[in-house]
Design brief:
- The structure is a single chain.
- By secondary structure, this protein is of the alpha/beta class.
- It is 41% helix and 22% strand.
- The strands form 2 sheets. The chain has a 5-stranded parallel sheet, sandwiched between helices. A two-stranded antiparallel ribbon has the order 4-5.
- Bound molecules: flavin mononucleotide (FMN).
- Flavin mononucleotide is lined by residues 9, 14-16, 83-87, 128-131, 168-169.
Length: 194
């Protein structure tokens, strides 16, 4: 399986970054191909601009968007990994989706409504939160709707795992390590199922 991991965290020492490094190694060891796009490290521009609209309308995809779309085309499974900021994804990741999942590439409008163009890929999210999960179910459920239905379903991606790790700044190192082990186990299931 070809995994594309979109990491949206500016700090390489963060929990999210450590989790993704471990998941990368785990997936590679299990025989998968894995590519990570670390949006802050590559200096991705997340602002969908007037120039982008006019270029896309002329069928001229801006080069930086085209590069990311090639990664998406390459993948079988896309994982968005991010810390929850103000009840959602960091603006960097939202901007990546605004620009890379563009009309004509990720979806098209047809007489019946909308046609997602990115099937048969799978999509997953891995999120860390400051809040403990027991206190945060309403927000997590809302985020599952946004990621699963509003984003993945819309573009024809089948939602797979939506993982949340709570209380990340408060819990012990041991618990943080157990969270990472949990994520690795969650992504081992794919190999058992398929
Ligand atoms: C700008 C900002 C906004 C945040 N908003 C939330 C929030 O809405 N809900 C929450 O539970 N934690 C929030 N947090 C806490 C982070 O989610 C938490 O520190 C992070 O998940 C820890 O993992 P990390 O080491 O990967 O950053 C916020 C942190 C920052 C910096």
């Amino acid at each position: 399986m070809r995994y594309l991991i979109i990491l949206a965290h500016p700090n390489p020492e963060s929990f999210s970054s450590s989790l993704i490094n471990a998941l990368h190694d785990h997936l590679v060891n299990e025989g998968n191909e894995v590519k990570i796009r670390n949006l802050y490290a590559i200096g991705f521009n997340p602002v969908l601009s007037a120039d982008d609209f006019s270029s896309l309308a002329d069928n001229k995809t801006p080069k930086d968007i085209e590069i990311e779309q090639e990664y998406v085309k390459w993948s079988d499974h896309i994982i968005f990994a991010f810390p929850v900021w103000w009840g959602g994804m960091p603006a960097m990741l939202k901007g990546y989706i605004d620009r890379v999942f563009s009309e004509g590439f990720a979806y098209e409008y047809v007489a019946e409504g909308v046609n997602g163009l990115l099937s048969p890929r799978k999509g997953s999210t891995i999120c860390s939160t400051g809040a403990y999960s027991e206190e945060y179910k309403t927000v997590q459920d809302a985020m599952k709707v946004i990621s699963g239905e509003v984003i993945f379903d819309f573009v024809g991606i089948k939602p797979y795992k939506q993982l949340f790790y709570g209380g990340v700044p408060s819990v012990s190192d041991e618990v943080r390590k157990s969270y990472i082990q949990n994520a690795l186990r969650e992504f081992s299931d794919i190999l058992i199922v398929e």
